[in-house]
## 1
Amino acid sequence: MNAPSEWAEKDYYADLGVESSASAEEIKKAYRKIARDNHPDAKPGDTVAEDRFKRAATAYDVLGDEKRRKEYDQFRAMLRSGGGFSPFGQAGGAGFPGGFRSSGASTGTADFDFSDVFGGSGGGFAQDGSINDIFSGLFNRGGGSRRSARPTRGQDVETEITLDFREAAKGTTIPLQISGNAPCTSCHGSGSTTGTAPTCGKCSGSGFTSENKGAFGFSRPCSECDGSGQKISDPCGDCSGTGTVHRTRSITVRIPAGVIDGQKVRLAGQGEAGPNGTPAGDLFVIVHVKADEVFTRSGDDLHITVPVSFAELGLGDTITVPTLDSPVRVKVPAGTPDGRTLRVRGRGIPKRGGEAGDLLVTVQVKVPNKLDSAATSALRTYAQAERDSGFDPRAGWAGAV
């Protein structure tokens, strides 16, 4: 487990408004609803909605990934257990996450100096006692399954890109330049000139050495191999035995269709290379989406406002409107009121599985600035006929006098 320190203070299930037992599909639906309702494009300038959107995106970044959700659940369960978890194999006790009791207590436990835990000669806890350092110590203790004192994977990397609205809606592939630690080509990431790194004899490859103090056992990074578990006797000259060098590399990133502004796209194993051949970290691409001159979106639906004439609404007509692909023809029924929205199914944002949202077409009357004599005469004739028929556009209007 490599739990970030902020996990101790976050309730990602609450941020998405779901129970901890929610299925992956329920979590996805909850996130999409929050993102749709609170997106900055839908509520520009609303700082509360923007904060809600960002918290939901952060929560989904963890809960939407099966592996990270499992780690998060395990971390939360350990926090809830309080004194029931002991890093030293003892029963939990009140007031301390390892179940310690001070020396001289009636339980008959051996004398114990807490300075051995928080710094000094202790077992790997930082002196500031921060929650992240404490839990790092819990999972790097002696006995049982142990992890290396050195990083077991490379650093995660974040970068940002800006896409046109239609690129984000349809998906695209873009090249990126990433600078950071990459595997050394001379030693193929091993850190050794010969390409092999023998196991450290002092710690037997664990990266830790252990010592006992009375009833308690402690572990610390091995001083011989600096916690790596390997003893490189012939370090590579190009990388100084680390297995990594700093360089710029080019990668191609596929952005899925329907990505929204502020969303993170995770590329596993595309982050910085790990030391001495350990796995690389992940690359997180933060996507920014430009506004479009024609389209707006709500979830998977596209919105467009189309200018029409009074005659097209009154008599009915078929108009041509743009989509993300080729234009489509939309039938406007006779007597359609100004501002009505017509739905064209399947011409919105593409979804997974080959489906797509809908295109919502709102018609808006465009009044001519000037008319020639023939049009003016015809319109006056129509206006008189309209009055003779008894039509009153303000009939039933609350402001009628």
## 2
Amino acid sequence: MTLSNTLDLHADPDFINEIKTIRRDIHQHPETAFEETRTSDIVARELEKVGIEVSRGLARTGVIGTLRGKLPGDRVIGLRADMDALFIHEANEFSHKSVHEGKMHACGHDGHTSMLLGAARQLAKNPDFAGTIHFIFQPAEESEGGARVMIEEGLFEQFPCDAIYGMHNMPGIEVGHFAICPGPMMAAGDTWEITFVGTGGHGAMPHNATDPTMAAGSFISSVSTILGRNVPTYDAAVISIGHIAAGDYNSPNIIPARVLVRGTARSYKPNVRDLLEKRLQEIAEYSAAVHNCQAEFNFIRRYPPLVNWEEQTAIAAKAAAKTVGAECVDSETNPIGGSEDFSFMLEKVPGAYILTGNGVGEDRPFVHNASYDFNDEALPVGIAYWINLVKTELGG
């Protein structure tokens, strides 16, 4: 992989070391959803240091930096990075290990924030583009929908964008490689839960009870038929059970009165999403009725599918090719089952979301792993991509 001649960041090791220091500092001090005050202070300070106009307060800890090019032009683009960490006990022992027990940057948002800060610094130094950039530093991507909150609080009214772009690191892809596809790229991420309600009773006399464990068991054994018999073979979907709770460990001779079953549903199309909700409820209610119980059903729509716009996907792929060469860009990658709240932004504004390699091998665990760490070798690649994207979108 050779970075584009338009920006040889490897020729400026001091700059990259500064960005690496920022990245490791953020990693060492992880902050979870809507609590990213220290991280936001770092972002605002670094933007203001290079003369970028800063606005704060959207979604509590969000930061927007605005930079206008020195060439005439009215087009406005948004570049987004997420800032929050996860509730995970870090297993690493390096010097920048988390100092907050039970919290860590296990998804690389420390790297995303640092790459966008690095690009902002370089672009502010030489704003030879036509138009305006909004650097959007978003809180609470992990499960809390910070993008949705920013939008609800007026993100695109206060900072209108003609197009918006996001980027995420991906272990399993080599550093210096990118992957993207038009259309659905990430799945809707929904949570469902069912409480099966009976009377419970003595385990030795089940004929005197209505047993919700039987209803729950029937449901669990039947739920996979939704994918095999209801979802069309040309569509993709996932239903997984992640939590089952009932009774008390110390009372194995008691039939519980309630059994809770919770899980996740993933899909890429609105009609499939609707189908999963409908069939989960129907099977739950049928399973309960067969065993003379009740089913309390709840389907929580969290993040919609992330759908890349075709024109902006082509622009992103072109910028990636400028950065690392076309042979290092997979522009027709397969969609992945994870979900991302950047999807809310893509529902409002044309845009695209791209994956950048975080490295391969056993020393590069997948995201949301206690041994994960963002690969600092990817920093100059991501920074160069953002700058080439601006040049592709706004000229210069």
## 3
Amino acid sequence: MLEAWVTWVPDVGFPILVTFYLLHRIENKLEELNDTIKTIPQLH
């Protein structure tokens, strides 16, 4: 998957590539946070 991203650098530019990388990394954290928030009503 990283190889496909590296081929994008000349086309879209480095800043856009970094943005997509960071969004991809943050996605998992947001899903965990969402799951945690959904369980809060069950704790009370």
